[in-house]
Amino acid sequence: MKIRKTTEADLPQVMATFDAARAFMRAHGNKTQWPKGNPSEDKVRADIARGNSYVCVEDDAVVGTFAFIAGPDAAYVHIEDGAWNFDAPYHVIHRVASNGKTHGVAKACFEFCQQRADALRIDTHEDNIPMQNAIRKYGFARAGVIYVSDGTPRIAFDWQKEH
């Protein structure tokens, strides 16, 4: 699996990947994360323009997507029910999605990001058990609860490279 920056030409496949991820979440008990139209095409276009959007590609097809953004992130300023496990400059992983047919998207995403940053933060919905399991599998530790821009809570995790 190759990872590269997302281009405008990738938008239809990226949006289809979000649709597939949304369907997977609904089928696995996560009924409210990413309501229809979220993440929006405008959000992905902004990520592309800032150089923060990436696609996972196999056989010239987009099989996954994620955003990898240098912090700080406003949603991570206030944390409840815990605390960040470290206080260091970090990057954030957002909007991880797979087409639902290709295995290894989360692994590829996390390894890519861990190779490029000494510290990472990520969050997910409390009902997104598959993503929580993937996050923990790749060495992230639960930090607490944060609130995203629409005011809904997310379980927050962080990871720091061992020196």
What can you tell me about this protein's structure?
- By secondary structure, the chain is of the alpha+beta class.
- The protein contains four helices and seven strands, in the order βααβββαβαββ.
- The protein is globular.
- It has a single domain, classed as Aminopeptidase (3-Layer(aba) Sandwich).
- Strands 1-2-3-4-5-7-6 form a seven-stranded mixed β-sheet, with helices on both faces.
- The chain has helices at 11-27, 41-50, 105-116, 129-137, and strands at residues 2-5, 53-58, 61-70, 91-98, 119-124, 141-147, 153-160.
- 29% of the residues lie in helices and 30% in strands.
- InterPro entries: Acyl_CoA_acyltransferase, GNAT_dom.
- This is N-acetyltransferase.
- GO terms for molecular function: acyltransferase activity, transferring groups other than amino-acyl groups.
